[in-house]
Amino acid sequence: MANNTEYPKISIVTPSYNQAEFLEETMLSVFNQKYPNLEYIVIDGGSTDGSVEIIKKYEDRLAYWVSEKDSGQVDAINKGLSRVTGDIIAFLNSDDVYLPGTFNIVLNEFRLHPEVKWISAPSLRFAENEVISELKHKIKDDRVRWLTYCPLAQPSTFWMRDIQDKVGLLDPSFHFCLDYEYWVRFVFAGYSVHFINRPLSAYRYHGESKTVSSREKFWAEEDRLRAKYEGQLTAVEKSILKRKVAKKMRDQSYYRVLVILRTKGIQAAREEFSKVVKADPTNLATRTGIVTAIRVLLNRA
After folding, report:
1. pLDDT, tens digit, 9 for 90 and up, residues 158-193
2. CA 52/CA 126 separation, integer angstroms
């Protein structure tokens, strides 16, 4: 590590805009780590909902904060990341939280594996009345797999400053896949993620969450992300990616059918289902196609 003290500096950036309802809980989850060498930066986009008052409440514990108009989440995160001076870096959105002991777990993993530059772990998903634990899994060093889907939970991901110095800041052209594009950039720069099979954070799942409200826009950005990196693949990798993406697009088509069934009713869903099957009849022979057909026939979204 760049810092040889007992507790290398951990730098956390929180971007926020009109999230007063959740912001204090997020900030306290950072402070309550009681980590002795913390650099915490909050970048607010000019909130008008009381967020600034919350930030001021804790400003003596912040390394830096600002509340000013910006061009969005990526701009806010990059403002913070450009100021960090720590050895270990992460960003935590203003509606997510760290679980108790997270920083010490991360520090111990970096110490046990000095070759590791990048750590991630599962995240709990929570709403008002429930908490769901995401499945534990292994991450493979497979560039095609990384271009097929994002396997990481952003709030549970930490990296060493070496990586940021090499790959730079987030790409401001990505709004929905901003973290996914960053992880793919790590992979294509030659870094492997070290995965810990225990949750380090919890992310709030609510109607305004981007992951809930803008799934179609996520898919569009994923297509653009693949186009950005596909040219670096071998011919064999490109062929494998083409097959995997075709399957993913088929599954997305059936997902749209179920969304329409839930939001617009049975007739609209049947019409959409017919379009999907007509576009490629072989899709109906897949497990996803059969399950979707049954749910549409039984009117079960």
Report:
1. 999 999 999 999 999 999 999 999 999 999 999 999
2. 25
